[in-house]
TrEMBL record:
Protein source organism: Nocardioides marinquilinus
Source lineage: Bacteria, Bacillati, Actinomycetota, Actinomycetes, Propionibacteriales
The protein, known as: Alkaline shock response membrane anchor protein AmaP
Alphabetic keyword roster: Membrane, Transmembrane, Transmembrane helix
Transmembrane stretches, start-end: 55-80
């Protein structure tokens, strides 16, 4: 998620929260008449007149389309974007370019972690962290895994990526998730 999208999300959340808080306080004040002297009965004549105008269906349809497009933009902006698939190495120049396939590197790192440590479901992907391409390996640990063995395996995978990219152009991150909870077998009752 980009910084601008985070700002829009937070600002939208604050505005929506203030609107809901104001509506709630207004409803409480209408019920108990603490601050304002609001009428007890609500008249909908003005709303009926507005809805009865000839331009209302068009304005309502236009507003609905605009809100739908804003909602679609918001959903698409929150989709996870795949990381870079390749990275141009520093040895590239006028004579040619050298590109490293980062997705293959990520898949290889995931397989290497499964070989070195008691983990399952190891998956590699690429992402960008502070404009630096990062190979990210995520796996679930075995419930009886030795923490020292896990640490050594993660360090070995990170060292492999650092050796492959000695200029520090590509980072590595190993994320180890908790083991999956054991499923309880269902007992069937015989009658």
């Amino acid at each position: 998620m980009t910084r601008r999208l985070r700002v829009v999300d937070r600002l939208g959340t604050v505005v929506l929260g203030l609107v809901l808080l104001g509506a709630g306080l207004l409803a409480l004040d209408w019920r108990y008449e603490v601050v304002l002297d609001l009428p007890r009965a609500v008249s909908t004549d003005a709303a009926d007149d507005l809805v009865g105008t000839s331009w209302w269906p068009w304005a309502f349809a236009g507003g609905t389309v605009v809100l739908g497009l804003v909602g679609l933009w918001w959903l698409l902006a929150h989709l996870a974007r795949p990381g870079p698939s390749s990275h141009r190495l520093r040895g590239s120049g006028g004579a040619g370019s050298l590109d490293a396939d980062l997705r293959s590197v990520a898949d290889g790192c995931a397989k290497r972690l499964e070989q070195l440590a008691p983990v399952v479901d190891a998956r590699g992907r690429t992402t960008v962290v502070r404009r630096l391409p990062v190979v990210e390996v995520r796996a679930r640990i075995d419930p009886y895994a030795d923490p020292a063995e896990l640490t050594a395996a993660a360090a070995a995978v990170t060292a492999d990526v650092e050796a492959a990219f000695p200029d520090g152009d590509v980072g590595c991150r190993v994320l180890l998730d908790a083991p999956r909870p054991a499923r309880r077998a269902r007992r069937s009752r015989v009658r």
